Task: structure prediction
Amino acid sequence: MTTTMPMLETYPRTIDLDRAKLAAAIEAINACAQACTACADACLSEEMVAELTKCIRTNLDCADVCAATARVLSRHTGYDANLSRALVEACATACRSCGDECAAHAQMHEHCRICADACRACERACRDLLATMS
Amino acid sequence: MTTTMPMLETYPRTIDLDRAKLAAAIEAINACAQACTACADACLSEEMVAELTKCIRTNLDCADVCAATARVLSRHTGYDANLSRALVEACATACRSCGDECAAHAQMHEHCRICADACRACERACRDLLATMS
Amino acid sequence: MTTTMPMLETYPRTIDLDRAKLAAAIEAINACAQACTACADACLSEEMVAELTKCIRTNLDCADVCAATARVLSRHTGYDANLSRALVEACATACRSCGDECAAHAQMHEHCRICADACRACERACRDLLATMS
Amino acid sequence: MTTTMPMLETYPRTIDLDRAKLAAAIEAINACAQACTACADACLSEEMVAELTKCIRTNLDCADVCAATARVLSRHTGYDANLSRALVEACATACRSCGDECAAHAQMHEHCRICADACRACERACRDLLATMS
Result:
């Protein structure tokens, strides 16, 4: 349903990054942002919400950082390697924190388990992309 | 790759909307936001950018409205039908404008054609969801 | 510290809206977005967080809608009155809901009182701007 | 008009950062985000838009990174120093790039001059905050 790769393929100039890894990163980041937004809200509706406040905060941060990162990676005009690298690093950091926090609740809450997996997949895709940036 | 439906299924309380239509809308909206961000950037790299400025602006607006709408629709705690309806209406309006504008450039620019399709699909998904809200 | 009005004054073409009301709306919307983000987090740190979940959700929605609205209103190229009107309406709706919800906790929580005021001011600025749009 | 400092003062727990520097950073970041969004649009309406495409792209990136950073810095619950540091670094990087690019057009375009100043102020506020984080 997404058109991430077709949009990369129709960009009129050259793209300085591996298109397959870039598309994989953008899709993993957008999927993670959605999962984190939904997990924050699901945590908010748990009876034990008082024990999930750190998870909610980490989810909100991760969603915000992912959203900004997906946008920056979707642009290629006047590419700035320094910014892309710094932001993808920050995104991987957010996913690591959020994945760890969600994993700690994964046995109690299925939404945290799904979200932890989305964070892990996103962190991996970010690190795969970073490896091609240096 | 996305986990929109699994996240809906693991939400711990009732959801006041049709889950299938809701998931379809969230996914179409997120796909549209990505396409619009990428199309704005692709237009920026066309030699004839001076003729694409309205398209770029409409793309940027549509991406922003879609991003906010996908987030609001991903939350179910303390559901507010008035806000959801007003925002999904605004999202459909943004997709209509952006789809029309991109369609006008679709024969010249393949990225505009793909983006126009994403906007049409998103507008349809928003209207399908709106129909279940009243 | 903000440069909202100077940026409006240096826009190279005509702007189809009252600049003073537009600048006032953008500033009130951005202030409201910040207050709502901070109020959601402050609620999350209250011992009685379980009684504030609807307030948190409404805060998050209001922040997202305000962020998108401030961006759309900061653009004037290829102005689309239909989208601006629909989005400012949705923003006023979000501020009304969030202002009401925060006001209900204003006596217990000073952050809710401050945030309710920011929402009221934002709703007013949105309605003032809407009055000039028709 | 903004309530950044009052919201910090009414946060119910301790905040691990210098409140004055934190408030200054949040305000500078939000002001920069608005200036960058408006500058991208103003560039889009210049007759010589073809020479401003890198400026537009840098403006859009900077606005997105600033928006995410302001939100993360507005949260204190379950504070994660690693993420805050990585993100404020990325924000300073974005402001440096955007400030340099806008400065290159400052003599031709007053909106670029104002935006360059906003980027410089934001980069400084980010670096001041970073200095207190280590």
Summary: The interface with chain B takes residues 40-41, 44-45, 47, 49-50, 53, 56-57, 60 of chain D (CB under 8 Å). The radius of gyration of chain D is 15 Å. Residues 19-44 of chain D form the longest helix (26 residues). Chain D has a mean pLDDT of 97.
